[in-house]
Structures are given as structure tokens and as C-alpha cells.
Amino acid sequence: MRAVRCHTLGGPLVVEEVPEPRGGVPVDVRFAAVNFADVLVIQGAYQVKAEVPFTPGSEFAGVVARDGHGFGAGDRVFGSAFTGAYAERVAVPAAGLHRIPAAVPMERAAAFGVSHATAFNALRLVADVQEGERVTVLGAAGAVGLAAVELALLMGAEVIAVASSEEKRAACAELGAHTVLPYENLKRALREAGGADVVVDPVGGPHSEQALRGMRWGGRFVSVGFASGEIPAVPLNLAMLKGVTIHGFDFGGWARHDREKLAAARTELHRLFAEGAVHPRIHAVHPLDEVDAALRVGRDAIGKVLLEVARGV
Ligand SMILES: NC(=O)c1ccc[n+]([C@@H]2O[C@H](COP(=O)([O-])OP(=O)(O)OC[C@H]3O[C@@H](n4cnc5c(N)ncnc54)[C@H](OP(=O)(O)O)[C@@H]3O)[C@@H](O)[C@H]2O)c1
Q: Best of 35, 118, 138 to mutate for ligand 1, by most ligand atoms within 8 A of CB?
């Protein structure tokens, strides 16, 4: 089978013939999604290291290749893994696979799992967003950011989307964000809007503190990532004076420490997906051979970038 291979961390990726993966449920991949973490894994900069040579890719949708583990050949599924998804076939434990609802196109399923679950868990499990609360999303046109905008709206929140360009802010407004803001003068703009009850922050860097300063009494700040490359250090007096609590969400930690709540949240999110209430935005689809171009989109993406691995599987 053909797969993208990383032979040297940070080095060029190649598409080559490799043996099929063994163990778990074999899935013929139709689309793989590019996730921020994939780029870090390829660079050797992620908190968990992959051993070279390896096939990158952590999210996919496709068709089960053989009966077994509660799945049947031909079942349409989506799922995630640490690596292995940028390939014609991936093999994963059954627990990492979910059936694609009948009405949902496969590319949408490939774009849904990681970003929407991250956003949902930050909003529901961690921040416990209530109807009518004001939710501010940083990096709001990125994959996690757009998912957070969409899901916070579904939860009945008033959404303030913060993004770096007109085009990105227009995409957030089109999705239904009540207010769109640039990063400049963020603290003042948030205060003028009445202050944020919840901040979802996948970006980090200097904007985190400005968003924290723009929160109202009793707010919940949720850090989910550091796409800017900078882990911010915030003055804790802000938390003390504002009665704000600072949280984080990370899949790994929750999977180790509170699997049951994570599973309950997933059930609720997947129900919304099956009902057609959730529509991940796809920025671009590149063929497998253009993996470098797909990975280069980076910050320019509005929503999700996909690799089309095989047609018509
Ligand atoms: N905790 C978890 O379990 C979990 C799960 C999934 C993802 N994450 C993390 O969440 C973060 C965002 O992921 P994502 O999938 O939303 O990524 P993404 O689609 O690339 O979006 C990231 C956003 O961050 C902003 N940004 C600021 N500086 C940037 C830079 N130097 N390079 C790229 N983007 C930059 C951009 O928005 P502006 O241009 O508007 O600033 C961009 O749209 C990543 O750090 C990822 O690792 C965490």
C-alpha cells in the first residue's frame, strides 16, 4: 500500500510502498485530516515522540476492510490514532473507531472528530457553558476555533470570535458569531462588550493575557493549545481579583483520568453530528502526493485541511 513516510524528523516526507499495518481493525482510508499535532510530530516537537521511520496522520475516515471487532467489511467509519493515517490503510483498536452517520459525507466525518471533540470538551466538560453566557474564542477561524464557535452557538452562548484577518473574521460571522474582533486592543474590546464568561484559547502567546484581562467576574478560561508557539505566563492576581478560574483541556490527560466523562461528552457530541447540527468547514483537499502542500497551509486555513487518500473507496 502507499503511505506518506517520515524517515528523518523535520526532514522531507515521501510517499512510498510499505507493508500493510497489522492488528486492530483495518480501515481503507478515504480522507485523512491534517492536524496541528501532526506537524509537531513530524518535526519531533510534540510531547510524545514517534520513532522514525513512521507514517504520520492522526485522523481519518474510510471503510472497514474486514469483518471483526464488532465491525463489518464496508462499514463507513472515522477515527483517530497517534500516527498512521496518511496511508491507504490504517489499523486501529476498535475503541478508536466510530460509525459515520448515513447522511454524513465521508470528508465531513474526516474533518470532525478531533477539532470538534476538543472544542466540545473545552466548552462542555471543562467550562460548563450555560445558555446566554458570553464565550470568547481565540484563533476562531482555525479548526478548533471554528468548531468552538459553532458548538458554543449550539449551546445558546453569545459568541465573540477573535481572529487575525478580515477573511477569517468574515468566516466566523458567516457561521453566526455575534461579534468578531481582531487581536488588537482585545482587553478593551472585550470589556466594552460586557466581559467574557468563558475564553477558549487554542493560540497562547500574548493574546491569552489580554483575553484573561477582558473576562468578567467568575469566568472560566480554558487553554487548549499554543498554536502561536508561545506558552504564556499569566499574572495570577488576575485570577484572584476577577474570581476567574484557569483550566486546561487535553485529550491525553482526560483519557487517563476521567474516561467516563469523556465518553459521555463524546456520545452527546456524536448525537449532534448524526442529527446534522454540526458542519465542520473544509478549507482545502489535497491528494496524498501533495502532502507537503497540505501541511504548508498552516495558519492560512479556515477550518480543516484534508488529504484525499483514495477516490471512491
Ligand atoms: N488539547 C487538545 O487535546 C488539543 C486537541 C486538538 C488541537 N489542540 C491544539 O490546539 C491548537 C490549535 O489547533 P487547530 O487544529 O485549531 O490549528 P489551526 O487550524 O492551525 O488553527 C490555529 C489558529 O491559531 C492561530 N495562530 C496564531 N499564531 C499561529 C502560528 N504561528 N501558526 C499557526 N496558527 C497560529 C491562527 O489564528 P489567527 O490567525 O486568527 O491567530 C490559527 O487559525 C494547536 O496548538 C493544537 O495542537 C489541542
A: 118
> What percent of the chain is modeled with pLDDT above 90?
97
Q: Mean of the pLDDT values across residues 282-288? A: 98
Residue 249 identity: F
* Residue found by looking up cell 510534540 in the block: 46
Q: Which of 144, 165, 184 gets mutated to test ligand 1 (max ligand atoms within 8 A of its CB)?
A: 144
Q: If you measure from the C-alpha of residue 203 to the centroid of ligand 1, how many angstroms do you get, rounded to a whole number?
A: 5
- Nearest-atom index, ligand 1, CA of 115: 6
Residue 7: which CATH number?
A: 3.90.180.10
First to last CA, the chain: 14
* Minimum-distance ligand 1 atom for the alpha carbon of 37: 47
The boundaries of the domain holding residue 149 are 117-254
What's the whole-model pTM score?
0.97
23: left (phi over 0), alpha (psi -120 to 50) or beta: left
Tell me if 295 sits within 8 A of 301, measured CB to CB. no
Q: Is residue 268 part of a domain?
A: no
Backbone φ, ψ for residue 152 (5° rounding): -65, -35
CA of 226 relative to ligand 1 center, distance in Å: 7
Angle at 119 between CA 115 and CA 125, to 5 degrees: 135
pLDDT tens figures, 71-109: 999 999 999 999 999 999 999 999 989 999 999 999 999
Confidence of residue 235 (pLDDT cuts 50, 70, 90): very high
Strands annotated E in the chain: 2-6, 13-17, 25-34, 59-64, 76-80, 89-92, 97-99, 134-137, 158-162, 179-181, 196-201, 215-223, 245-248, 282-287, 304-308
Of residues 30, 18, 41, the one with CA closest to residue 311: 30
Claim to verify: residue 125 and residue 246 sit in the same structural domain: yes
Total of domains in the chain = 2
Question: Phi, psi at residue 94, to the nearest 5°?
Answer: -55, -30
